[in-house]
Known about the structure:
The chain is an all-alpha fold and 284 residues long. Helix content is 71%, strand content 0%. Residues 1-23 have low confidence and may be disordered.
Amino acid sequence: MGPEMQQGWPESSRSECPSRNTLLPDIAFHLLLLLCAAAFFAGFVDSIAGGGGLITVPAMLIAGIPPLQTLGTNKVQSLFGAASATIAYARKGHVQLSDQLPMALMAVMGGSLGAALATLVPGQVLQAIMPVLLVAIAIFFAVKPNLNDSDTHRRMTPFLFGLTLVPVIGFYDGVFGPGTGSFFMLAFVTLAGFGMLKATAHTKLLNLGSNFGALVIFASFGATLWKIGLLMGVCQFLGAQLGSRLAMRIGAKLIKPLLVIVCIAFAMKLLSNPANPLRVWLGV
């Protein structure tokens, strides 16, 4: 997260990287329960349509965790949710882990580079264009006919897809994060020709890769609160198990509307901040 992305947070909430020995800040028990509940629900939603960060990041900020540690700690617990959903989908044959390993490694590389180069990315530009992109994705999935669980015409070879889009979206995940799952979903459906359920399953695998890559970098700088991250991770793992099983049972009838809702919610959340550059530029 670049310095521009901390715009809108009070000075008291900003913090340098904590000591590597900092594991658990002084957080009240009821706030820990809030974080656990948020992680479970985030795991459920994220395993179906992405967007878990919309729930966990605000919850951690409410609990008093500074923005930088929130970003790093969110990668810890997100890793559990992505792994849980990936395992569930792989067990049912919706994603072949060995076949998709090269693509997952590209996501790891993208996430690592994104986290490492976060301070060099124009954060204000990302904050400004994100709501517009998310609304566009929501409209696409809402109005496009014949979106179901059947594969369609492939417009890009798996090799080119893995070499270009996967590391780019993974890079974005390391830099910023919100909406990564929606971007992967859009790419899989429109370019790889995947059905909704298959796209969801493969999105979780690539999310796992980009989360891991970003976490390695954030952890190396000490920007992770491990006990909170692991506690939330267990809850997110359980939520993702429930969500992925429900998605496999219902398929596109559940994934499509939830994806639209999550994208709109993301956009509204980003625009609710008066310091969002898009609102500042438009004067609203």
